[in-house]
């Protein structure tokens, strides 16, 4: 086992994540910390960080280091970005930190920062190509990701804090504030010529301020899932937030959620995001829950563990299977069985035409993680699987696909009449629910055919008539236990699928 700590010195805070890495390279976030610090507000006339700010920074880093020692952290990585790059005495600050704290700082370049941003998303979002939009506290990054590599990048040395200064300037009218931010957005577009060549690419937005925009929208909408990663928000909603966000809304929001955010900074971030997206003719963005620190961690995995993530979804699922010590042979057998049944009878399922979900990914996820609830309690573990899937770090699915996968997994055993959908009516349509019921009974059948969890089924031949689906099963042993268990769902199968099921 190995524990990695990654510390990022930002303009408004110092942040640390701790990730536990097991022997089989399965990993999970075990702790995160944030300490506020106003570095940009502690500069002298020559652009040097003042001594009291340096002392505060060193104290925070020492405290973080003592936490790392208590947690027996094996490796600590400290990175500095635009905040430290831009100050006149950065070399002195870096040397002092190394001397006082004992850990060297990696003062990364603009290109490195963009590369880590790209890595954090290439490994954890569904899109192989896209425009990554990172509004951090002290800078702004745009990255063109192509085939999960960084094609082009741009870093602008103004971020959410500077936008907050504009909107916090009481000497300016609302129109003057908007004109100033408009000018910043225009300058971004003028300085990035390759932006105009990008069309119809998904936009992946990241950064603490972007996540706050998403969380604000989720709060105002009363969105039923508390999941920021993968949340989509369109330009009209961002425009709505700008027009309706005020101190009263912020105060009410703070009463219901654990947030600490500056009103002017968030208002500036909302307006800048809206303005830039409008100028780029972007209709919506997808929120990434990952950031620079996750990119640094993935870079560590690539270099030190030779780990390459080709499929964010499969990587995250396999990581969960390892962490929970699930029966991987059984999980993959159920996936094969469920996918085999689904593929061969799909034409008779009368599924509605849809473009917003990937049914293969849904079947894949629900099958592989159908037993995940057993880590909570074996009894009624199908109930628990719903919540485990919904609250696990699964990447590469939309919120709708994740929710459907959770429901289907919860259908895999016993009676499912207890399940209701009303809570998630904003996300799931009646067509989605119909799909869940059909894929749910397929998963239940797959589970029956591996009752002894020994991968005995080797092949299935399908014959489909107007009234029947015949499955001729080849196995390494006589399937008395499996066929007996499957016989219990024959009536349910016929009711939901609309054809009689015959097993041979």
Please give a quick description of this structure.
This protein has 504 residues and is of the alpha/beta class. It contains 19 helices and 14 strands. The two termini are 48 Å apart.
Which features would summarize this protein structure in a list?
5-stranded mixed β-sheet, Nucleotidyltransferase, domain 5, alpha/beta
Description:
- The protein has 504 residues and is an alpha/beta fold.
- It folds into 3 domains: 2-108, 2-Layer Sandwich (Nucleotidyltransferase, domain 5); 111-290, Nucleotidyltransferase, domain 5 (2-Layer Sandwich); 312-503, Hypothetical protein af1432 (Orthogonal Bundle), CATH 1.10.3210.10.
- The chain is 47% helix and 17% strand.
- The protein contains 19 helices and 14 strands.
- The chain has helices at 51-70, 82-85, 90-101, 110-122, 160-168, 174-191, 208-221, 235-244, 247-256, 263-279, 292-304, 312-324, 328-345, 359-368, 381-390, 399-410, 430-448, 480-487, 490-497, and strands spanning 2-9, 13-21, 27-36, 75-80, 105-107, 130-135, 140-146, 149-156, 203-206, 232-234, 284-287, 457-464, 468-475, 500-503.
- The strands form 3 sheets. The protein has a 6-stranded mixed sheet, sandwiched between helices. It has a 5-stranded mixed sheet with strand order 3-2-1-4-5, sandwiched between helices.
- A hairpin with a 2-residue loop joins β7 and β8 (149-156).
- α1 packs parallel to α3 and α13 runs antiparallel to α14 (359-368).
- The two termini are 48 Å apart.
- The mean pLDDT is 91.
